[in-house]
Amino acid sequence: MTWLELSVQIDNEAVESVSELLARYGYNGGVVAEPAWIPGDEGPEFSYDPSRPVTLRTYIPLDAQAEDVRQRLEQALWHLGQMRPISPLQARSLEEEDWANAWKQHYSILRVGERTVVVPSWLEYTPRPDDVAIYLDPGMAFGTGLHPTTQLCLRLLEQYARPGLRTLDLGTGSGILAIAAAKLGAGPVLALDNDPVAAHVATENVQINQVAHIVTAAAGSLGAGQHMGHWLTGDFGEQGSGIGDRGSDTAPSSPTPNPQFEMIAANLIAKVLVILAADMADALVPGGILISSGIINTKEADVVEAFAAVGLHQLERHVEGEWIALVHTR
Q: Considering the entire predicted model, what is its pTM?
């Protein structure tokens, strides 16, 4: 099969909105982000420059509908471009083998926080004595460690994870936060995602990191989340309609977990956090910790209000650029 790679360059402030748009058109909702890399002073580690453009890529089958999809995406990007600088949409064809590996060239070893190191599974790395190395093959799932929201969560997990802490990673994507929690000592860990592709990728990454005895990855969500599609698609289902499935073959397959978690990590977006506020509060034991991220600064007040309304008390607030991470307790 031949694939069409569609790519666009944007500033960091537009990453969330353009990612959502590309996810609606791309195969399995997959979006690859390529920040502007900065080589480290020593070793193979990289960081990235948030002041330079990010390249986003998605892939579609090169079939009879491809040109129509390309034109519709181009038109939608034009409208977004009236608010934020967006480069013209670029397209190139790739054969199956090239497509399967094309995105891999955009990832490098990344150190986050004091101990966590995100290592693409196809690269070699010798961990330092105190390193918590996470070997990741993100595939077409969200959650590579590159995005500021993921990095905020990883830093907070370094602070809060401790042995025996029953943990839920809600919206797990590639499984990066679940794996980090397990390697930092927490467990057992349940990693849930409404996207079956993400749940499959997370399961594979759990096995790569040899934490399958601690982490269980599955398709599913909490409460109202079971009525949603993948959050990047903008399908938020029937808000607040409670536990259950959508009555179709796209519904999450796993049962809703019992409210027995001592820590929840939820790297979603503000609207989803608001919808799931009551469900997350119910799933958290008294004194438990909720780490939430994916919050754009213009939506922070909505999340703070929703969490307060369900009895969650804010402990911490962290900022990276325009992104917010919050820590609450019940």
A: 0.68
